[in-house]
Every structure is written in structure tokens, then in C-alpha cells.
């Protein structure tokens, strides 16, 4: 690590204030070009510590920048990981206030819920599928706190991977009998398809993103607990939304989920 604890705490407060008050900031690596991966995850962890101290609770985990579309869009080639807290959750068909966000985008997700704990190193797709209770469709709303949605990998990790809201719905389907790689995904905005893809866009297999998360946590002496909800990563590129937009996601064999921006 290159940053001291005081700097980590200051940057965490800076980024969390941007999220809570919906204002954009410049990427933090401009002022701290020498910060490393451990610094980035330490800032992310300090933001979570602040939320937990306020009474928020973790309701899920996420993998980000896992699809080829997202990697190309953001100019990166390594997945990133973050957490989801209670007030991020929006009911299926619910409304999302754009006044609480900066420049939101939506992306379609295949969501996993575990029935057994997963821990790396060495976690693989087979272990993930064996530990999965069910999968379901989800819409993640991302909202980078960085100006013009422009950032590098360390800055976005520190910003909890642009996390802000998510919507779960559709059917809870067991993975037995499903080929998650070939599940078709259609994201619609205001009734028109705006992005299409298949599960294989997420690291070749969505379960690979969960395995990567387990191995990431395992390197830190942590695990994915049983009963954890995990967003496996955007299947397509992220799509910008604004007040008045309605978004619907359909995933083959998993049903649909929707939300509206006001």
C-alpha cells in the first residue's frame, strides 16, 4: 500500500459524499498517481465501514467490468468487485429518483444466490454451480462519481465499482438444466431493445465471475457466505438513462424485471 490511513479515510469520505449528495469529482488517481490496488480496495472498505456505522447493512456482492462489452467500453481487462447495501435495493417495477444520482446507466445481470459458502483460492465454475441455490434476472444501475464517467481501474474500485441501485425480479431458477452461457438477454428502454447479449459475454460463463470473486476474497482471508446474492456483471454495455425512462430486462428461462426513472 502507498497511502496512509488518514489519506484513505479522507478519500473514502470524499467519494461517499459525492455518492450521497450526487455530485461528480475528478478521478482520485490524478492527485494520487502512485496508489495501488490494495489502496483502492482499502478506500472501498472504508466507505463500507462508514455505511455500516450508520446502520446500513450489506445485502449482496457484485462483480464488475466482466463482460467483453464493458471491458471494451471502459478500456480495461480485469474484473473488479464491490458490495451492495440495503438502500441500493429497488423493488421490481419500482421507481428510481434521478435527482439522487449523477449520470446513471443500466446494465443487465444474471444474479446468483448461494446456498453454500464459497472460498478461494482455487474456486472454479463447478464449485460455484454446486453452491448456487438459484439464479434470477437483475438490473444494476451504475453511477460513477467521476466526471463524465471517465476513470481508471483503481479509481473505480475505490468508488465501489460505481454501485448505486439494483432491481431483482423474474423467476428464481435452479441452475441444473440451464446453460448459463447461452441464455439470451434483451434490455429494453421505453419499449425498444437497446442491448442484446448472452450469458457467455460474462467471462465466457457467468459462474466464472463468481469464482473470480471467491478467489479475490480468499486472497484476503474472506469468503462468500451461504445465502449471498451476487450480481455477476453486465452482460452488455451499460445504457444511459434519464428521468422518464422505463427499463425492462428479459432473460431467457428467467423471466423479466423492470424499473422506471423519475
From TrEMBL:
List, alphabetically, the Pfam families matched: FAA_hydrolase
The UniProt record lists the EC number as: 4.1.1.77
Question: Can you supply one Gene Ontology CC term for this chain's record?
Answer: cytoplasm
- Please name the top-level EC class of this enzyme: lyase
Annotated keywords: Lyase
Domain Fumarylacetoacetase-like C-terminal, residue spans = 104-261
List the GO molecular function terms. Answer: 2-oxopent-4-enoate hydratase activity; 4-oxalocrotonate decarboxylase activity
The organism's superkingdom is given as Bacteria
Database matches in NCBIfam families: catechol_dmpH (TIGR03218)
Record protein name field: 2-oxo-3-hexenedioate decarboxylase
User: Which species is this UniProt entry from?
Assistant: Thauera aminoaromatica
Q: What gene is it encoded by?
A: dmpH
Amino acid at each position: 500500500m502507498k497511502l496512509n490511513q488518514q489519506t484513505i479515510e479522507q478519500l473514502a469520505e470524499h467519494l461517499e459524499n459525492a455518492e450521497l449528495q450526487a455530485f461528480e469529482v475528478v478521478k482520485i488517481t490524478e492527485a494520487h498517481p502512485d496508489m495501488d490496488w490494495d489502496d483502492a480496495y482499502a478506500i472501498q472498505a472504508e466507505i463500507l465501514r462508514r455505511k455500516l456505522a450508520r446502520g446500513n447493512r450489506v445485502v449482496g456482492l457484485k462483480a464488475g467490468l466482466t463482460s467483453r462489452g464493458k471491458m471494451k467500453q471502459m478500456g480495461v481487462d480485469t474484473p473488479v468487485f464491490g458490495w451492495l447495501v440495503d438502500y441500493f435495493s429497488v423493488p421490481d417495477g419500482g421507481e428510481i429518483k434521478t435527482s439522487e444520482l449523477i449520470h446513471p446507466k443500466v446494465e443487465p445481470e444474471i444474479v446468483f444466490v448461494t446456498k453454500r459458502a464459497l472460498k478461494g483460492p482455487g474456486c472454479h465454475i463447478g464449485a460455484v454451480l454446486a453452491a448456487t441455490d438459484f439464479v434470477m434476472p437483475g438490473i444494476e444501475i451504475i453511477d460513477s462519481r467521476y466526471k463524465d464517467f471517465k476513470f481508471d481501474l483503481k479509481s473505480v474500485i475505490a468508488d465501489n465499482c460505481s454501485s448505486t441501485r439494483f432491481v431483482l425480479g423474474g423467476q428464481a431458477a435452479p441452475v441444473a438444466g440451464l446453460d448459463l452461457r447461452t441464455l439470451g438477454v434483451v434490455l429494453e428502454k421505453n419499449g425498444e431493445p437497446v442491448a442484446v447479449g448472452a450469458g457467455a459475454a460474462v467471462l465466457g460463463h457467468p459462474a466464472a465471475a463468481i469464482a473470480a470473486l471467491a478467489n479475490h476474497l480468499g486472497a484476503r482471508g474472506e469468503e462468500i457466505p451461504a445465502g449471498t446474492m451476487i450480481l455477476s456483471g453486465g452482460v452488455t454495455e451499460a445504457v444511459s438513462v434519464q428521468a422518464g425512462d422505463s427499463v425492462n430486462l428479459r432473460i431467457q428461462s428467467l423471466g423479466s424485471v423492470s424499473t422506471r426513472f423519475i
